[in-house]
Recover the amino acids of this structure.
């Protein structure tokens, strides 16, 4: 087994499902926030993404606008709303390495999106045999992410190796997994926290090949995502062109049988 579980005495703390795993605040992050606290937000992006229980992704701007009809200040309408999954979305997370790439997990599938691409995902998995319950990007590998399932197993995907199936699947618990969170302990050790519906926290150690990035991995994975985005754009353009042609009326088309009938009538 490539991922080893850290065996420690189990302590029953709670019976409720583990929904989120948080680490202690980073001192650098705290100092950064304090430095810019109270400054104006003119240069801050005010747009955000929302995932719903109906499997939709909504891209919204929280800055209010003025209604043209009443002149009153109202909430901005959604920039776009996409049907992303066939069930509740449990994960909505930006890539820590590649700008505008988003991981979503919901229903029986996971998907990768480009923020400004409104046609659909640049990659979507085939429906799994069981529902997917959580997901998280690797903090050190641009092409690696972890997916939790309700059957108690996790899938580790490595797009640098293959994209049609997980690089590794491993059973962790008999209960549905509700949260996964990888974190770097040191330069030589990376752990994966896995929470389940029974309130148990499992700690796994990530092997070196899934935590150490290869040379220019960011560039390789980014180029792959760009190719997939171009493919989606091209497919959408072809679909639009085909649809428009199908809707065009046929002009100057007279059935031959009707012409023959008219000539026969004149004779």
């Amino acid at each position: 087994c490539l991922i080893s579980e850290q065996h420690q005495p189990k302590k029953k703390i709670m019976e409720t499902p583990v929904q989120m795993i948080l680490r202690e605040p980073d001192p650098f992050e705290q100092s950064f926030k304090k430095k810019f606290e109270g400054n104006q937000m003119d240069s801050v992006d005010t747009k955000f993404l929302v995932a719903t229980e109906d499997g939709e992704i909504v891209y919204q701007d929280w800055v209010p606008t003025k209604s043209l009809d009443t002149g009153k200040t109202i909430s901005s309408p959604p920039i776009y709303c996409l049907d992303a999954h066939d069930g509740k979305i449990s994960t909505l997370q930006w890539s820590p390495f590649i700008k505008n790439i988003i991981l979503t997990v919901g229903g029986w599938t996971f998907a990768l999106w480009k923020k400004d691409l409104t046609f659909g995902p640049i990659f979507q998995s085939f429906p799994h045999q069981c529902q997917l319950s959580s997901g998280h990007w690797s903090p050190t590998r641009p092409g690696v992410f972890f997916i939790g399932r309700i059957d108690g197993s996790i899938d580790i995907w490595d797009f640098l190796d293959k994209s049609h199936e997980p690089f590794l699947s491993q059973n962790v618990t008999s209960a549905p997994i509700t949260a996964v969170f990888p974190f770097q302990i040191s330069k030589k050790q990376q752990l994966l926290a896995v929470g389940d519906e029974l309130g148990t926290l499992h700690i796994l150690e990530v092997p070196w090949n899934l935590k150490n990035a290869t040379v220019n991995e960011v560039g390789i994975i980014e180029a792959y995502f760009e190719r997939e985005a171009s493919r989606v754009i091209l497919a959408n353009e072809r679909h639009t062109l085909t649809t428009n042609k199908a809707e065009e009326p046929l002009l100057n088309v007279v059935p031959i049988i009707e012409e023959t009938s008219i000539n026969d009538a004149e004779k």
User: Anything to note?
Assistant: The longest strand covers residues 177-184. The chain has a mean pLDDT of 82. The helical segments are 27-36, 217-247, 256-266. The chain has one domain: 46-63+73-243.
